[in-house]
Design goal:
The structure holds 2 protein chains of 2 kinds. Chain A has 7 helices and 10 strands. By secondary structure, chain A is of the alpha/beta class. In chain B, a hairpin with a 2-residue loop joins strand 5 and strand 6. Classes of the chains: A alpha/beta, B alpha+beta.
């Protein structure tokens, strides 16, 4: 599903150039659950941003679903993103002014789903995440775990083929964290590809394969299955 | 402490360069507009103050009533001056009879120049407190004297003292220069008065004036009267005393009841309109209007400052929290923020003064003023210091009190969010800004429409290639036929005529007309124009009935041609062939012409009769040859005039130019309001731009999230613009009725006026929305296109 080769990314300031990704290559197959690990600043988040087509690379190749997307412009990338990728962030990134229901509904609005259908889909996914009873609340009124479940709901409401999770349990206590990991595993079992950046060895154990990074390079890759 | 305040203030300015620049430029423009308007208003209200006794000088005007309507006019009868001096002398310092001022020919040896001036009684010099360079205020005592202005002296005698030199007036009168006065300043009624000759000379040199004197003509109004009331007297009381001075001598005139009105010099410029015998103001309405506009523009600029400062509040909140927790009092914080606004206002003021300095030449041209930047005037600077303080307080007060009231614990914990109230306040400010701007736009469009409407109305003649020449001296007498045939032969003109009034004014009107079916109680007043046979062909009037004057009918010497307004006024059906009695003579109506627009283009054309009379004409009209260039024709005309009238410099004006002058005041208002409206819009947009950047900054995270979950640039742009469009829509809804009310009120000044169509409002509204979208879009699109991971990283 994803194939990257010699991917490069630099950050430039006035004085120095930092290498975030240094000729990184790997492949992810449909239905895999990958954990990316490594110390702070090793390039994990940069990698995730490029995979999510939120950021440009400075070189290399990135094939998504058989398409070379490295030179795609903003609009094309946005279109692929909209239909194929869901995001889960460490800090949830819910919109404070919108209710739980509205937050989850947002991606459907942007992909042009009809209102009645949106209602059905949002309710289904909220049911699945067990936060249906909270659908009229605003994010500030929820606990961290609940907020992350809303974020996951929003990520999956469009039935994406790929979920990118950036330390999804980083802001949660262990029981809430476990709940979220169970959720992701469940989604993966249903066929969704997941790439997750994490610091937690515990969380990484939920995955099929761990890619360890250092200074923008892959150091090891070990399969857990 | 104060130093510390300014240090922090300065660093804050430098840190937020973009916002500071918007603030300073916006305020500077606002202040520059206010200073300019202030200088303009000062110029308007100090009109005529060059005359020391300007508060006691008055023009004596005459109210006359006909058929229930009172009209106020300048001309008064000859004996009035003497009568007032004799009977009411105690109430006056000076009583000065004067001719109407106009162009006259002054000449020495072989140099002839057309000079604007008139004949006045000797006290004129003292009453007007003219600043004499040579001679004294007694200069007009001898009948054969003349007092000239500095520039007239320069034109004839260079820098030599001209006292005792001879000058010829209108090629008839030899007079000796007895005084030279400094040129009268630009903002004075008598500006451009190039000479004053003695009244006595006027009387002796004009037969009809002498006739008026010798026969004590109380019912011939052809002169002006100026007075200065005695020190310690009250203008209103003096007016009451003299009001019947004419009526007492004309008891037969009980129906028109002539009544005198004193028009004080301080009102000449700004309050010169009369309705039913009562002063109803005049240009003063524009002084008020622009004063209000100036204040609004400043308010708009201050609003920007408040808006942007409070918009920064979340950023500044932490600073407030820290300062409060280390013991700063609320008062010190208020001072801190006021120092900041003071600093911004001072910087803006420096910029504004420079802008004004640079803009004054252009502004003078626009407003037809000669305003000088008063950099030497202490009072000007003192007022400006006050202006800076007031502006700092207006602009700085809200931010100061708002920011200093933050609760430190909340702020430092990071749970602080700018309140809903603050947002509502900011939105209100934007609505105010756009309401004002939209009102100004609508007002400006209405003024333009009114001018266009009046410019496009039918004028009843063909002004293209039509030239008028005033017969200023006697030199033209008896030369009509010679001039005409010579000019026609030269091929320079298509036709020539003469008339008593210029095409663009009415010089005489009178009563005493009788016709069949007239109500005997109806007091007539009809414009009378004496013309030569060729008038119709020259000016190209539009005959609707009957025929033009013709040399083949000897009876045409007593014939009348009426304009349509006169036919309506008299209520005659089938006027051709009907008889009208006037001055004990029968006149037959031979034709009716379309109304010729001679007076104000904003009023209906008055009833007029045209008659043949060769010995009472003051103007020559020439229709230039349409197949030759105007320059070529005029050169040929000049040659002919110089040949037959060698002692008068050849001066002409195109009728079209004279006609265009009727719109000068309105055009000026239009131009000024256009400029001020532009600044108001610009300042409002600047404010909107600042506010958008703030809101966008506040919503960065939200926009990032929306983008990640699939929002397109277009949807985000829509999202961000929607709120502003709502505000502007509200502003338009508020502005439209206010503007409609104001515009209707203004248009009521004019009898001939345009309709206010809904299109005006539609155009202004669409314009406002378009400007808003443009301003908001600059920011909205930028943020919508920005990389969302950057905004999400802020966490």
């Amino acid at each position: 599903m994803i194939k990257i080769k010699d991917l490069e990314k630099y950050y430039k300031t006035e004085e120095l150039q930092t290498i975030a990704l240094n000729k990184l290559s790997f492949e992810v197959k449909q239905g895999e659950f990958i954990a990316v690990m490594g110390p702070s600043g090793c390039g994990k988040s940069t990698l995730l941003n490029i995979l999510g087509m939120l950021d440009d690379s400075d070189g290399g190749s990135f094939i998504f679903n058989g398409e070379e997307v490295i030179n795609y412009n903003e609009r094309k990338r946005a279109s692929i993103r909209k239909h194929n990728i869901g995001f889960v962030f460490q800090s949830f990134n819910l919109i404070d002014q919108l209710t739980v229901f509205e937050n989850v509904e947002l991606p459907l609005i942007y992909t042009g789903v009809k209102k009645a259908e949106r209602k059905k889909k949002v309710e289904a996914v909220l049911e699945k995440m067990q936060i249906m009873h909270r659908r009229k609340h605003f994010p500030q009124q929820l606990s961290g775990g609940q907020q992350q479940r809303v974020a996951v709901a929003r990520a999956v409401v469009n039935d994406p083929k790929l979920i990118l999770a950036d330390e999804p349990t980083g802001n949660l206590d262990s029981s809430n964290g476990n709940e979220v990991m169970e959720l992701l595993t469940e989604l993966n079992d249903q066929g969704t590809t997941i790439i997750m950046v994490t610091h937690s060895e515990h969380d990484a154990k939920y995955s099929h394969r761990i890619i360890r990074m250092l200074d923008g390079q892959k150091v090891t890759e070990n399969s857990l299955v | 402490m104060l130093r510390n305040h300014f240090k922090i203030a300065w660093r804050n300015l430098v840190k937020n360069k973009g916002l500071s620049i918007i603030n300073i430029i916006g305020l500077a423009l606002g202040m520059a507009v206010v200073i300019l308007i202030g200088l303009w208003i000062n110029d308007e209200v100090t009109y005529n103050q060059n005359h020391e006794n300007y508060d006691r000088i008055a023009h004596v005007l005459l109210n006359r009533t006909a058929n229930g309507e009172t009209r106020t006019r300048t001309p008064i009868p000859f004996p009035l001056g003497e009568e007032i001096r004799k009977k009411y002398g105690d109430s006056f310092d000076y009583v000065v009879m004067s001719s109407f001022h106009g162009d006259n020919i002054l000449s020495i040896d072989n140099k002839s120049l057309s000079m604007y001036g008139g004949f006045m009684e000797p006290d004129a010099l003292r009453m007007l407190s003219l600043k004499m360079m040579y001679g004294d205020w007694g200069g007009l005592k001898k009948p054969n004297s003349v007092v000239i202005s500095q520039s007239t002296a320069k034109a004839f005698f260079d820098d030599i003292n001209p006292i005792g030199k001879f000058i010829k007036v209108n090629n008839l009168l030899n007079v000796v220069v007895t005084g030279v006065y400094q040129d009268i300043p630009f903002n004075a009624r008598f500006h451009g008065l190039e000479f004053i000759a003695p009244w006595e000379l006027y009387v002796t040199s004009h037969d009809w004036v002498r006739y008026a004197r010798d026969n004590n003509l109380w019912d011939n109004n052809s002169y002006q009267l100026f007075v200065q009331i005695a020190d310690g007297t009250d203008m209103t009381l003096v007016n009451a005393k003299i009001k019947d001075a004419i009526y007492n001598n004309l008891p037969d005139y009980s129906r028109s009841h002539p009544e005198l009105v004193l028009h004080p010099m301080k009102d000449w410029h700004l309050r010169s309109n009369w309705k039913n015998g009562v002063n109803i103001g005049g240009f003063i309405q524009y002084v008020w209007l622009f004063g209000v506009i100036g204040l609004f523009v400043l308010l708009l600029a201050c609003i920007n400052f408040m808006n942007l400062s409070t918009a920064q509040s979340e950023k500044r909140a932490k600073e407030v929290g820290v300062l409060k927790s280390i013991g700063s009092s609320k008062r010190q914080l208020i001072n801190q923020f006021l120092s900041e606004s003071f600093l911004v206002v001072v910087l803006a003021f420096i910029l504004a003064v420079n802008l004004v300095f640079l803009a004054i030449p252009a502004f003078n041209q626009l407003a037809d003023k000669q305003i000088i930047f008063p950099y030497k005037n202490m009072l000007f600077w003192l007022i400006n210091v006050g202006f800076i303080l007031v502006t700092s307080i207006i602009a700085g007060s809200y931010p100061a009190f708002y920011l200093s009231s933050f609760r430190p614990v909340k702020v430092l914990k990071g749970t602080f969010k700018a309140g809903k109230m603050a947002m509502t306040f900011r939105k209100t400010l934007v609505i105010v800004q756009f309401t004002v701007s939209v009102i100004l736009v609508i007002g400006t469009i209405v003024v333009k429409k009114q001018i266009d409407h009046s410019k496009n109305r039918p004028i009843g003649y063909e002004k293209n290639r039509l030239v008028m020449i005033e017969k200023v001296t006697e030199d033209y007498e008896g030369k009509y036929n010679t001039l005409r045939s010579e000019l026609l032969n030269s091929g320079a003109i298509a036709e020539m005529s003469e008339s008593s009034s210029p095409l663009t004014d009415v010089w005489s009107s009178g009563g005493g007309f009788e016709w069949e079916g007239k109500d005997p109680n109806f007091l007539t007043n009809i414009v009378t124009v004496c013309v030569s046979h060729d008038y119709g062909n020259t000016v190209g009037w539009d005959l609707v009935e009957g025929r033009d004057f013709s040399r083949t009918f000897s009876t045409d010497s007593t014939a009348f041609i009426l304009n349509e307004a006169a036919v309506k006024y008299m209520g005659i059906k089938n006027p051709i062939g009907k008889t009208i009695r006037w001055n004990n003579q029968e006149h037959q109506v031979i034709g009716v012409v379309k109304n010729i627009l001679a007076e104000s283009p904003f009023e209906p054309v008055k009833q007029a009769v045209y008659m043949i009379k060769y010995n009472n004409t003051n103007w020559i009209e020439l229709k230039l040859n349409p197949y030759k260039s105007a320059n070529e024709s005029l050169a040929a005309v000049k040659t002919v005039f110089n040949k037959y009238i060698p002692n008068v410099p050849f001066e002409y004006q195109f009728v079209g130019d004279a006609f265009a002058k009727k719109f000068v005041a309105e055009e000026r208002i239009r131009k000024l309001s256009t400029v001020f409206t532009f600044f108001a819009i610009f300042i409002s947009c600047l404010g909107l731009f600042g506010l958008t950047s703030f809101i966008v900054e506040q919503r960065t995270k939200e926009i990032g999230i929306r983008k990640v979950v699939g929002a397109s640039v277009f949807t985000l742009w829509k999202l961000l613009s929607k709120d502003f469009i709502m505000l502007i829509a509200l502003a338009i809804i508020i502005a439209v009725p206010l503007a409609y009310y104001g515009a209707t009120h203004w248009l009521n000044n004019y009898e001939y006026r345009t309709e206010i169509s809904w299109k005006v409002f539609a155009i202004s509204g669409i314009g406002a929305v378009a400007m808003t979208l443009l301003t908001v879009s600059l920011q909205a699109i930028k943020i919508a296109r920005a990389n969302p991971i950057k905004s999400l990283k802020i966490e």
